[in-house]
Amino acid sequence: MAGSVRSGGPVVLVGCGRLGSAILEGWLLTETVAPADLIILSPSEKPAAEAARAQGARINPPLEALTEAGVIVLAVKPAIWREVVTPLAPFLNDQAVILSVMAGVTAPTLAEGIGGWPIVRVMPTTGVSRGRGVASIWSADDRAQGLGRALFEPMAETVVLADEALMDAATAVAGSGAAYFYAFTEALARAGQASGLDAATADVLARATLRSAADSMGDDDLEALIGRIASPGGSTRAGLDALAKDGRLTRMLDETVAAAVRRNREMG
Ligand SMILES: NC(=O)C1=CN([C@@H]2O[C@H](COP(=O)(O)OP(=O)(O)OC[C@H]3O[C@@H](n4cnc5c(N)ncnc54)[C@H](O)[C@@H]3O)[C@@H](O)[C@H]2O)C=CC1
Ligand SMILES: O=C(O)[C@@H]1CCC=N1
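Above: query sequence and NAI SMILES. Below: predicted holo structure tokens.
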């Protein structure tokens, strides 16, 4: 229901890039935040922000408007967040909550730049724009955690993490995972080409197959799902054996996730 998230004041979205826009679109689509409760800070014009403005959101009002804010959502790049929040801090009221969707930036680091307010970290996927995202949530503060859940549960499958240290792994799996999936799709299409399909046909087959596989996955046991396709001694089993030869699939994904975790830690 529009405006059902009662954060104690307007929701301020700081940064309306790829993720900020996705979050904004998800809130409006799922009516999680009423447009009139939204303040968007963005140095440049963004289509998602303009659409929100048309429904009543405020874009770049005088910073005095932030004194009413219930939650400040930081969706800027990790490299610039300090310079972005410094001018905002003097306008925030005691009850405001800082919600960060920035990869890698830890709560203690955030507290150095914008200390004194409860912090909740959320790692969403851009699927929130269609109300079908994933979001990992962590906070040491119950009220802030509740606010993070209220803002993301309507548009994402959410997981509350017990320990902030797990956020880097959750980011490496979920925040980045869709990109791995697209890279896999591309590689599958290329492999189809290497086996004789023309590029356009291989692209259609790879995309359509993985789309329909993702649609059918649900919560079913993954080995059971594989078993429904791979008949014993059949061609899929031969392909799966090649994929897993000498543990290479597992090793490749271990290395992929570990590299992303390392980078998240460096950014923090
Ligand atoms: N794109 C993704 O799938 C995900 C991104 N993230 C995190 O979200 C954050 C943002 O990432 P993206 O949206 O991909 O980056 P982006 O570069 O698309 O967006 C950042 C936005 O911040 C704006 N900005 C710069 N200075 C500003 C200021 N002073 N005030 C307000 N806005 C300002 C820029 O105009 C830009 O639109 C990053 O910290 C990233 O780690 C987290 C999960 C997923
Ligand atoms: O690549 C990034 O830095 C962010 C983290 C998760 C998705 N995008």
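The beta strands are 11-14, 38-41, 58-59, 71-74, 97-100, 119-124, 133-139, 156-160.
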